[in-house]
Amino acid sequence: MRIGRLNLASQHGRVALVTGSGRRRLGNHIVRGLVADGFKVAVHYHRSADDAQALVSELAANKATAAAFSADLRSRAAIVELVDSVVEKFGRLDVLVNTASVWKPIPLEAITEQDLQEQFDVDLKGTFFCCQLAGLQMVRQTEGGAIVNFGDWAWERPYPDHAAYFALKGGIPSLTRSLARELAERNPKVRVNCILPGPVLLPPNADEVERQQLLASTLVQQVDRPDSIVRAVQYLISDEFVTGVCLPVDGGRTIYAGEVR
Q1: Are 55 and 45 in contact (CB under 8 A)?
Q2: Distance of CA 43 to the CA centre of its chain
Q3: Is there a catalytic annotation at residue 165?
Q4: CA 104/CA 110 separation, integer angstroms
Q5: pLDDT less than 70: residues of the chain
Q6: What is the DSSP string of 146-187?
Q7: CATH topology of domain 8-249
Q8: What is the pTM of this model?
Q9: Which of 45, 159, 165, 235 is catalytic?
């Protein structure tokens, strides 16, 4: 049996679409990691046009190939246009990473129909149609492709004030496994996996108290590790024997009932 390293060099010249990557959050870090691996990258944004264009300009200045694409992921028609535009621009689509999400605390008593609908439209419906349309594009390609969805470590151990969020985010693992089967039936070289992140990126307004609380909630006593997410994405893209997997990248929070959420 031959054991070797993952061949990230083989990704050179391939095309990746990362949703929700305009703002400097997880998607933004993932874009930078994929560019470093030689990918041409489609930077998706909805309201963060200036941030997305700034990222593309920065990457272009470093000789990387990237372009910004706007789409409201609440609309299937907009997602159709997004995927078509990426394929028209780059000629193919090898990787989709779905990081776009709505996350805001709302007490149970205050959740409205509009709140639940917004959560559904972006977190579940948007992810579904991005997977469907990008996945079927990959099916038509001899080399197939890879999709990486983003769930949440706490979907199995939810905390208060996020009932709407977890109700829909909890569907991502099932969606991932279902589409891994559906797409592989059409082309066995198309794979779908999921990452369940923990406190890998501190909120922009986090203070030292919150940081220490989050540190104490992990087994590894670490927090603010977007680099770990980037490596997880690289792994799931590169390993052709892995599909239908939901991978916690959470410092142990899934198994450690820390006091602080």
Answers
A1: no
A2: 12
A3: yes
A4: 12
A5: 1-11, 258-261
A6: EEEEE--GGGSS--TT-HHHHHHHTHHHHHHHHHHHHHHHH-
A7: Rossmann fold (3.40.50)
A8: 0.91
A9: 165
